[in-house]
């Protein structure tokens, strides 16, 4: 399938890799189909790209790469909605707010994106009762 993307231009991707966000993303409820593209080869950053809208794309990364002590608990309703049977099928990403300079960019640890790679489903969780906020700096000094 060929799609237009925000950061990579025209991309041909395997439709079997399409991720379904049944409830869309907060603020983008109509966006239900995404694909995960590496920002660059061998990069720890990815683009969560809408299959429907070229302009809807989020820069994401694994929170565990930058925040070694990051912890979250996926509630039972989300596990059911994502058809999670085994935690090894789960990938966790956080959406970045990219700034100039890049080393001042922040991560939304309060709203992780959960992907079940086996079932090709995804959902952004909004965590409550934690100290996580929407703008954690990736690096200490910018």
Total strand count, please? 11
Radius of gyration equals 15 Å
- Which topology does CATH recognise? BH3618-like
Percent in helix: under 10%
| Uncertain residue segments | none
Strand content of the residues, in percent? 25-35%
State the end-to-end CA separation: 40 Å
Q: Return the CATH architecture.
A: Roll
Note the overall shape: globular
Rounded mean pLDDT is 94
Order of helices and strands: EEEEEEHHEEEEE
Tally of alpha and pi helices: 2
CATH class: Mainly Beta
Largest sheet: 9 strands, antiparallel
CATH homologous superfamily annotation:
BH3618-like
What is the domain total for the residues? 1
Explain the overall architecture.
By secondary structure, the chain is mostly beta strands. It has a single domain (about 1-135), classed as BH3618-like, CATH 2.30.290. Helices cover about 5% and strands about 35% of the residues. It contains 2 helices and 11 strands; from the N terminus they run ββββββααβββββ. Strands 3, 4, 5, 6, 7, 8, 9, 10 and 11 form a 9-stranded antiparallel beta sheet that branches. Strands 1-2 form a two-stranded antiparallel sheet. The N and C termini lie far apart (about 40 Å). The model has no long low-confidence stretch (mean pLDDT about 95). InterPro entries: Flagellar_assembly_factor_FliW (IPR003775), Flagellar_assmbl_FliW_dom_sf (IPR024046). One of its GO terms (cellular component) is cytoplasm.
